[in-house]
Amino acid sequence: MQSIYAMHQNDSDNMEKEEKFLFHSIENIRDLYLIMISALVEIRVSEEDYIEKSSKKHLATSEERNPNKKFINNEVLQLLEENNSLSVAMAERKINNWKQNDDYILVLLEAIKQSEVYNDYIKDSESSFEKDRDFIALLFTEVIAPNEKLYEYLEDYKLTWVDDIPLVNTMIAKQLKQIKPDGNSFFVPRLYKDADDKDFVKSLFRKTVLNDRELAKEFIDKTPNWDTERIAEVDAIILKMAICEFLKFPSIPVKVTINEYLEIAKEYSTPKSSIFINGILDNLIKDYQTNNKLIKTGRGLM
């Protein structure tokens, strides 16, 4: 939707260029994921380094000579640091953001130490993998992910990440809650489920762009009180994409299409857009069914 919107805004007909940027943006989601998950590793490394240096000070305090190492010994943090899937992905994508911007790691570490989540964990004399896992999952969702300085850094680093941050943070939070002691349960997720998944991105983009006028006619005729100028551009694009799925993607259930685009409308368009779009799509479905224009294959696709 954003790529098609960009083409409209730039009055561009260079579909290949926009398609290339679309896939580049999707690839960058993996980099965002790696940066976020690696922050946990770097935070542990930073704290370990601090503890070691403090203990060697000439006038080290008793607390500095005998520090509480529960945080740096956290089993989940150690597991992430040793995880092969993560190490390989980091090397392949050349992710070294925190080595170059360690001041942000120090900011996060300070926020962690001031948090109730951290202090409750440190004070707990009992240790187990489950407690370590619950702590890290809670720490990520309540302290790290919402950190404003981190968000500002990510936004400045790559503007397209603004919309991807919630998706990536949700994925990481889910993974952390499910991680197991053997480490085999943690892996860097694939961007696409399979080749068909990636092909769908290209196909939906191309079919919507190439059939722009044809798709517009489908709903303009159904909205006699609205001319093209009066329909918000984002709404028009959402309608075109939804209609494209109705007519040119027989394997996608109608309800899935409607639900997905209503969510997009709520996120990116005007407050009343989802109601407007839902009404048009509902009328179109009835019309397509009456005229046998809607062909869906498989069970439960209506």
Automatic annotation (TrEMBL):
Q: Where's the NusB/RsmB/TIM44 domain?
A: 194-286
Leader sequence residues: none
Question: What keyword terms does UniProt attach to this protein?
Answer: RNA-binding, Transcription, Transcription antitermination, Transcription regulation
What's a Pfam family this protein contains?
A: NusB
In terms of superkingdom, the source organism counts as Bacteria
The Gene Ontology biological process terms listed for this entry are: DNA-templated transcription termination; transcription antitermination
Q: Which GO terms describe its cellular component?
A: cytosol
Q: Does the keyword Aminoacyl-tRNA synthetase apply?
A: no
Q: Which InterPro entries match?
A: NusB-like_sf, NusB_fam, NusB_RsmB_TIM44
One GO molecular function term of this record is:
RNA binding
Q: Which family does it belong to?
A: Belongs to the NusB family.
The protein's name is Transcription antitermination factor NusB
**Which species does this protein come from?**
Flavobacterium arcticum
For this protein's source organism, the top of the classification is: Bacteria, Pseudomonadati, Bacteroidota, Flavobacteriia, Flavobacteriales
